[in-house]
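# step 3/5: fold
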Amino acid sequence: MRSIPREDLEHHAKTSRKLHFLGLFLIFYLSFFAILCRLLFLHFILVLLSALVSHDALLVLKFVKM
């Protein structure tokens, strides 16, 4: 069996470490973005529902201007 040169092993370790941190960064970034989108969507839905329930024209205008 042929042995792998040390330089190749070190390069592979550095590359895999970079990919690991890139993957973690993407997971955290995408989860933060998903949570932010959900909160904004819930905010718009709540504003719209409150405007519909109270029949308040000012809230409807506020929602449309957002």
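# step 4/5: annotate
The chain has two helices and no strands.
# step 5/5: archive (pending)
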